[in-house]
Automatic annotation (TrEMBL):
InterPro entries: HTH_LacI (IPR000843), LacI/GalR-like_sensor (IPR046335), Lambda_DNA-bd_dom_sf (IPR010982), Peripla_BP_I (IPR028082). One of its GO terms (molecular function) is DNA binding. This is LacI family DNA-binding transcriptional regulator. It comes from Devosia neptuniae. The keyword Membrane does not apply. Residues 9-63 form the HTH lacI-type domain. The keyword Cell membrane does not apply. PANTHER family: LACI-RELATED TRANSCRIPTIONAL REPRESSOR (PTHR30146), RIBOSE OPERON REPRESSOR (PTHR30146:SF95). The lineage of its organism: Bacteria, Pseudomonadati, Pseudomonadota, Alphaproteobacteria, Hyphomicrobiales. Keywords: DNA-binding, Repressor, Transcription, Transcription regulation.
Length: 341
C-alpha cells in the first residue's frame, strides 16, 4: 500500500508514524540539535516513507527569517538583465537564499507594487535592479527589517545600500576614446527609459564634449533595445551631416545602430563611423559586431550583493559601497583615422 499522503506531509504525521514526539522530528532536521541515533533513524525512515520535506519557510518565519530575497527587475529578456539574473539567482542559492523575481515595467507605480509584495512575503531582503522606488516606501521596507540593495541609484537615500558602477566617468572615457580616433561629429544613442544609470552616461558624454566646445545630440528613439538603436541611426543619417562617432549607452542600442548604419545606409564600421557601447553583452563579442565597449563586471557586482546579504543586519552594512569601474574591451568598431592625435 502506498502510505504517502496527498499534499504536504506535516511533521506531526512523521512523528506519529515514527512513534516519537513532534520535537524529536524537529531536532532530527535541525543541524547541531541533540537527538539519539535510534530516534534519528526512526524519524528518517518515516520521513522517507511519507515523502516528508522540511518547511523552511515556516521554520524561518518562526525566527523572523524567510530566506526569501526579492529581485525587482524589468526588461528581463535583454542580455544584460538576463545575465545579471542568472548570476544572482545562482549565487543566492549558494548562500542558502531563495530568489523571488518580480517582473515590473520599471515605472514608479509598478516598482512600488513589487516592493509591497516583498513585504507581504516577509522577504529578508530586496534587490532593486530596475526603476526608482519612492524613498518613503524604501524606508518602510528598512523599518520592517528588510535589507534593501539599490543598483545604480544616483541619489542618496538613508537606509539601503547602493551598488553602482562609474557611469559618468566611463562615459567621459568613451568620449575621449572616440576623439582620439579622430571623430569630429559625435552623437549619443540613448533611451526613453530615463533610468539614473543611462541618464548619467548620456549627460556625462555631452558634458565632456561641451568642455571641448562641441555640441552633441542625444537621440532617444524608444525603449532600451535593438530597435531603438536602429531607429536612432535612421534619424541621424536621414539628414546630411550624420555622425562619424557614436556612443551607445548600452550595447543593445549600439548593435541596433550599427546594423542600420551598415545595411540601410551602406556605411562601413569603423571606416565611416566608429561605435562604442556599454555593458559587454555576449553579442558584442560576436565577429559580425566586434563592438568596442565597457564591460560591467557582473560577477564582481553580484559578489558585493551576496556579501551584503550575508551580513547580520543593515546596521553592519557599509552603505557607501565604492563604485565599480567598468573595464574597457577593445575590439574592431573603433579605428583611429589617419592623422588622428
Amino acid at each position: 500500500m502506498d502510505i504517502k499522503a496527498k499534499g504536504f506531509v506535516s511533521a506531526e504525521t512523521v512523528a506519529r508514524l515514527a512513534g516519537v514526539s513532534r520535537s524529536a522530528v524537529s531536532r532530527t532536521f535541525t543541524d547541531g540539535a541533540s537527538v539519539s541515533e535510534a530516534t534519528r533513524k526512526k524519524v528518517l525512515e518515516a520521513a522517507d516513507a511519507l515523502g516528508y520535506h522540511v518547511n523552511h519557510l515556516a521554520r524561518g518565519l518562526s525566527h523572523d527569517r524567510s530566506n526569501i530575497i526579492g529581485i525587482i527587475v524589468s526588461e528581463i529578456p535583454t542580455p544584460y538583465q538576463a545575465r545579471m539574473l542568472d548570476e544572482m539567482t545562482r549565487q543566492l542559492q549558494v548562500i542558502g537564499k531563495v530568489g523571488m523575481v518580480i517582473n515590473t515595467t520599471g515605472d514608479q507605480e509598478s516598482v512600488a507594487n513589487a516592493l509591497r509584495q516583498t513585504l507581504n512575503f516577509r522577504a529578508d531582503g530586496v534587490i532593486v535592479l530596475s526603476g526608482t522606488p519612492d524613498a518613503s516606501l524604501i524606508a518602510s521596507c528598512v523599518a520592517n527589517g528588510q535589507r534593501v540593495i539599490l543598483i545604480n541609484r544616483s541619489d542618496h537615500i538613508e537606509g539601503p545600500a547602493n551598488l553602482a558602477v562609474e557611469n559618468a566617468e566611463t562615459a567621459r572615457e568613451a568620449y575621449h576614446l572616440l576623439r582620439r580616433a579622430g571623430c569630429q561629429r559625435l552623437a549619443v544613442v540613448s533611451s526613453t527609459a530615463g533610468t539614473p544609470s543611462l541618464t548619467a552616461r548620456d549627460s556625462a558624454f555631452v558634458a565632456a564634449a561641451q568642455e571641448d566646445g562641441l555640441s552633441v545630440p542625444i537621440i532617444r528613439a524608444g525603449p532600451t533595445g535593438y530597435a531603438a538603436g536602429a531607429e536612432a541611426a535612421r534619424q541621424l543619417y536621414g539628414r546630411s551631416g550624420g555622425p562619424d562617432g557614436v556612443f551607445g549607452v548600452t550595447d543593445l542600442l549600439a548593435l541596433g545602430f550599427m546594423d542600420a548604419a551598415r545595411h540601410a545606409f551602406g556605411l562601413r564600421v569603423p571606416q565611416d563611423v566608429s561605435i562604442v557601447g556599454f555593458d559587454d553583452i555576449e553579442q558584442a563579442g560576436w565577429e559580425s559586431y566586434a563592438l568596442t565597449t565597457f564591460r560591467q563586471p557582473v560577477e564582481e557586482m553580484v559578489e558585493h550583493i551576496m556579501q551584503l546579504l550575508s551580513q547580520a543586519g543593515p546596521d553592519e552594512w557599509a552603505h557607501t559601497v565604492p563604485p565599480i569601474k567598468p573595464i574597457p574591451i577593445w575590439r574592431k568598431s573603433v579605428l583611429p583615422r589617419p592623422g588622428a592625435a
